[in-house]
Specification:
The chain has 14 helices and 23 strands. It is an alpha/beta fold and 481 residues long. The strands form six sheets. It has a seven-stranded mixed sheet with strand order 15-16-17-14-13-19-20, with helices on both faces. Strands 10-9-8-11-12-22 form a six-stranded mixed sheet, sandwiched between helices. Strands 1-5-4 form a three-stranded mixed sheet, with helices on one face. α1 packs parallel to α7. The longest helix is centred in the N-terminal third of the chain and has 25 residues.
Length: 481
């Protein structure tokens, strides 16, 4: 049982403005595993005031970039020292299988920290160019101001670091509003930041609900918003930011396609597909849940994907032997179960899984890993993000048809091409309108930009491009001659 009584506001632990609390329920046992204060708009006001003062009057934006880099190094060292504890905490809090918490949650966060340290050490904050009239021009990259960060529950530390660290490197001050589903891991991260000893007011962490997040988005003291979450919330945030011309970055949903070409090594594909399609029990925006197979090999692919899903152990997320854990909440369990019913109503054929609890489990917010065959790409189960362990195998006629189907989506975040001819796979990938793709795998690369086309949002994270949303450009033209 982990209990927090204070929020992290302005670089200090502070009493919340109300007595509202969030009880954290284990998605596996349905028992209380912790509690934390529920942040309110009043708490956001205090946090933004501290961030505003720290940006306008404090040393942080004026520090040499090397000093901010040293602070990020201290955060990294403190984070790495607690990896085992943090992995178990995230699995207990939101149900991620322990293997994924270790590798794809905390492990990936550690790798992202290392990547940003390297990027920050090489980033060109100021340069001189020869202007059009022959004069020197100084081009500066300066911090955007107070950054409001809103992060989801599915990969809480990873999504936080993707925003927090580039904002800090740029010289921004930060107010972070994590999801109310994961306040424990958020405040554990606050402990780490507190240990790193940043100047007063630079970072605040206020977990809370929708009203608290919307108050941050509309706060007059905030210069920049970065949000990861659902497309519906993203549209609302974009609208609110547009009213005040507030800078905004959105990383939203997806319905990514894995294109299995006829020359693919199916055994290798099936071995690697779980990581691409069912990571975090399918609760991942990058999950490739549309499996595209040619009609020539369709039955073979359906059988192989079905056997793969049947072979994945489901159960207690703290048991490292289990590949699939529970959904984060009963609401999410019911939502995914509703899509399984919808798929059957639409005429798709279940080859494994279906409604109800997995065998051997009588409690927890679990969903049976489910594979649908005979799926038409216009079905809702092929167009809407389910966010659970549900795969749709869709037939295509030829390569051009596969590309058409992959692109026939409101989203464009991730994807993959599976083939024995890597260069040809790259040619196919070039024709898919999505922000990130893999050939015979899907892995995020922390030195390269990550983000989506279409309704998957706009802006990029990671790589040097991940710093761009937190800077403003300034050009200073020097005298001619």
């Amino acid at each position: 049982m982990r209990e927090y009584k204070e929020l992290y506001i302005g670089g200090h632990w502070a009493a919340p403005s109300s007595e509202q609390r969030v009880d954290v329920i284990s998605p596996h046992s349905e028992e209380t595993v912790g509690s934390a204060p529920a942040g309110t708009p009043d708490d956001i006001d205090r946090a933004v005031a501290a961030a505003r003062q720290a940006f306008d009057e404090g040393p942080w934006p004026q520090l040499d970039p090397s000093e901010r880099l040293a602070a990020v190094q201290r955060i990294t060292d403190a984070y790495n020292a607690r990896q085992a504890e943090l992995s178990e905490l995230i699995s207990s809090e939101m149900g991620a299988p322990l293997w994924f918490s270790q590798v794809g949650q905390v492990g990936a966060t550690s790798m992202a920290l290392a990547a940003f340290l390297n990027i920050g050490s090489q980033y060109q904050w100021e340069e001189r160019r020869t202007g059009f009239f022959g004069q020197d021009v100084v081009v500066r990259r300066e911090p955007a101001g107070v950054a409001g960060l809103i992060t989801p529950w599915n990969v809480p530390h990873f999504t936080t670091i993707s925003k927090l660290i580039p904002a800090l490197l740029a010289g921004c001050t930060v107010v972070l509003k994590p999801s109310e589903e994961v306040p424990l891991s958020a405040l554990a991260l606050a402990e780490i930041i507190d240990e790193a000893g940043l100047p007063e007011g630079v970072v605040s962490i206020v977990p809370g609900g929708r009203d608290t997040g919307e108050h941050l988005v509309t706060h007059r003291g905030v210069d920049k918003i970065s949000f990861t979450g659902s497309p519906s919330a993203g549209r609302r945030i974009a609208s609110l930011c547009g009213q005040d011309l507030r800078r905004v970055t959105l990383e939203l949903g997806a319905k990514s396609a894995a294109i299995i070409l006829d020359d693919a090594d199916l055994a290798m594909t099936i071995e690697r597909l779980p990581l691409a399609s069912l990571l975090n029990s399918g609760q991942a925006c990058i999950a490739q849940t549309r499996i595209l197979a040619s009609r020539q090999r369709y039955d073979e692919v359906v059988d192989a994907v079905t056997a793969m899903a049947q072979g994945l152990p489901v159960g207690d997320p703290l048991d490292a032997a289990n590949y699939i854990g529970p959904m984060v909440s009963r609401r999410q369990q019911q939502r995914v179960d509703g899509y399984i019913s919808l798929g059957q109503e639409e005429g798709a054929r279940i080859t494994t899984g279906g409604n109800g609890m997995p065998d051997g489990l009588d409690r927890g917010w679990y969903v049976r890993p489910t594979v649908f065959a005979d799926v038409d790409n216009h079905m809702r189960i092929a167009q809407e993000e389910i966010f659970g362990p549900v795969l749709a195998v869709i037939p295509y006629d030829d390569e051009a048809d596969a590309i058409r189907i992959a692109n026939d989506s409101a989203y464009g975040l991730g994807g993959s091409v599976w083939t024995s001819d890597v260069e040809h796979g790259v040619d196919v990938a070039r024709k898919v309108r999505t922000g990130t793709l893999g050939i015979n795998q899907y892995l995020l690369d922390f030195t390269s930009p990550f983000g989506g086309y279409k309704s998957s949002g706009f802006g990029r994270e990671f790589g040097p491009e991940g710093i761009e949303p937190y800077i403003e450009y300034k050009s200073i033209s020097l005298p001619i001659g």
